[in-house]
Structure to design on (256 residues):
């Protein structure tokens, strides 16, 4: 992390976990452990939990995000949620292009780009996920894959909007598997992403963009990962569902 250059952001991705009443309970446990944090703290929660989550965190430093959004303002898209719907209830962030959306729900770089543009236009801050599959890493094409995702996911997005966007580097082989990228592996790819952003925009823009690492980050490995210059925070799945563990990661970001 380099807090003199950009915001440190610790975000939980709850995935398909927690009913509204369970969400309230977990947030009530997270609020005290997040208090006074020297980093941004976000909980990205299932759609049906959003209203109660926003109500629960009112007046605290915990922010709420959604886990996806559609690109159209409204229309015949059964089962989808628009940016306007999220914005109206007070959502601030939205996770886009998560590997589980890409793997199981046909998300492509083109749709990630459309969703990212729609989110920015509505005033939501996107957390855009990129990352290589294990097979791609083994074939030595990690940089190629990441460069393509960054180029396409941020296609036609201005430098000003790119600065409002968080990039989450999430190697797919490390998500929910207990296999964490080493701090050096995370740093290598996060630095590569920043170099790619500098090519696509300019050095000043690249230096301003928060790049998180995600993939089995937990209370035991967070400090080392966050000690790296280009790792500006974490997107955390499993460990974000346990207030004590999430709090320890927030602590590591605060001290880092
Ligand atoms: C994620 O869902 O974005 C994630 C990184 O999950 P986990 O921390 O469980 O690997």
């Amino acid at each position: 992390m380099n807090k003199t250059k950009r915001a440190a952001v610790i975000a939980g991705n709850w995935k398909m976990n927690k009913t509204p009443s369970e969400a309230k309970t977990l947030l009530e446990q997270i609020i005290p452990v997040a208090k006074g944090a020297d980093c941004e703290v976000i909980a990205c929660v299932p759609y049906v939990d959003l209203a109660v989550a926003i109500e629960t965190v009112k007046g605290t430093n915990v922010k709420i995000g959604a886990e996806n959004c559609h690109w159209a303002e409204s229309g015949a898209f059964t089962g989808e949620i628009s940016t306007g719907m999220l914005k109206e209830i007070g959502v601030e962030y939205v996770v886009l292009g998560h590997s589980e959306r890409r793997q199981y729900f046909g998300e492509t770089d083109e749709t990630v780009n459309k969703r990212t543009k729609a989110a920015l236009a509505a005033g939501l801050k996107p957390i855009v996920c990129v990352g290589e599959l294990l097979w791609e890493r083994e074939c030595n094409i990690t940089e190629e894959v990441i460069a393509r995702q960054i180029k396409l996911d941020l296609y036609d997005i201005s430098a000003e909007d790119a600065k409002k966007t968080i990039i989450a580097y999430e190697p797919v082989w490390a998500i929910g598997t207990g296999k964490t990228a080493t701090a050096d592996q995370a740093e290598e790819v996060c630095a590569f992403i920043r170099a790619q952003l500098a090519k696509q925009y300019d050095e000043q823009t690249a230096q301003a963009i928060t790049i998180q690492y995600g993939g089995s980050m937990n209370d035991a490995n967070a400090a080392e990962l966050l000690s790296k210059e280009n790792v500006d925070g974490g997107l955390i799945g499993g460990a974000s569902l346990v207030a004590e563990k999430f709090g320890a990661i927030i602590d590591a970001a605060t001290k880092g």
In short: The first strand starts at residue 9 and ends at 13. The two ends are 7 Å apart (CA to CA).
